What we know:
Layout (H helix, E strand, L loop, with lengths): L2 E4 L2 E3 L5 E3 L2 E7 L2 E9 L6 E3 L11 H8 L4 E8 L13 E3 L2 E4 L16 E6 L2 E6 H6 L6 E5 L2 E4 L2 E2 L14 E6 L4 E7 L5 H11 L4 E6 L5 E3 L4 E2 L8 E7 L1
Antiparallel strand pairs: 1-4, 2-3, 4-5, 5-16, 6-20, 7-18, 7-20, 8-9, 8-12, 10-11, 10-12, 13-14, 13-17, 15-16, 15-17, 18-19
Amino acid sequence: xxxxxxxLALLTTAGVVWSAPTCKxxxxxxxxxxxxTVDITTDPLRLFLxxxxxxxxxxxxxVNEALETDGKVLSFAMNAGMYHADRRxxxxxxxxxxxxxxxxxxxxxxxxxxxxxxxxxxxxxRADVIETLTFDANPLPCRFATQSGPMLVIDGALHPRFLKDxxxxxxxxxxxxxxxxxxxxFAISDAPVTFYEFGTLFRDILKTPNALYFxxxxxxxxxxxxxxxxxxxxxxxxxxxxxxx
Length: 245
């Protein structure tokens, strides 16, 4: 059963309505998850990686510091993809239309290389999770993009490598898209879960035809509407929505 914790609209001084992401608790397969839903048309998403000096932001607090000059603050945020020790994204990364890391199409070690993997592409008023080879064949003009892996759900089907009796459990987070790109749904497990449990959450409960895994060990959520601000090691890419401070 969904239990709505909080959802509210925020009005800026310019008269623009910002619809704060709604975060809810969701039970699935005997596990608890926190699910945040973003309407792209009223609450645009964007990615954060470096400050103006080229220093990795790494933490939600540092993103808020960087936003101060524009009179803004995060209204929702989550880590958004795997990265190297220097915080460079492992795969494709695009910010404000500028690509800083290339698309990786080959299989490789770790979860990122567990094909099929994919990416989240943000365009004006649209968000899409796309399998990597599909995107490579027909690239889109993403204003923001982050690649990660594995895919959790591909065209309504669970990733073929996920086993119902799998034993590897971690706190995991990811994103799915639906409603013709209008809605992005983010989820983080409240305790360690398997890939199968996490993937079926997106396929069967959240009903996202495509969903992407972000990470496990460093999965974190910033959701002031439910008084949540996860702390921990420095992150790479961060995705979020903003509002007037």
